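Reviewer 2 asked us to include a model.

Predict the structure of this chain.
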Amino acid sequence: MDNGKKAGEMMLRVILELFRIITIIFVIGMIMGFIINSIYAIFGITVENTAGGWIVGMAIFPLLYVLYKNRLQFSGFYKNGGQVKLSNRTTTILLCFSVLMLMVAPLFR
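Predicted model (structure tokens):
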């Protein structure tokens, strides 16, 4: 019976962590999108409702992934000994890819 209780607790923690990840994607993603669109607006660029807007949206996902894997996963509900940060090389590649997408997004207006 004790193993069943532990399995139930673990399942609850996994479900809570998935809900937390979805919330992070929506809330922090929306904030990042607002900030990026505000920066574009300062330069008189509008990418909303264009292909560039989709590129901005896709550029946010690697940023969120790096943020989660390097910081947020260690403060969540699910604790596992296998949680590790991304390597410096992987982090750099993902961040450069996101910045590149953000730089080319205005070209697809």
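The mean pLDDT is 90. The radius of gyration is 18 Å. We have added this to the supplementary material.
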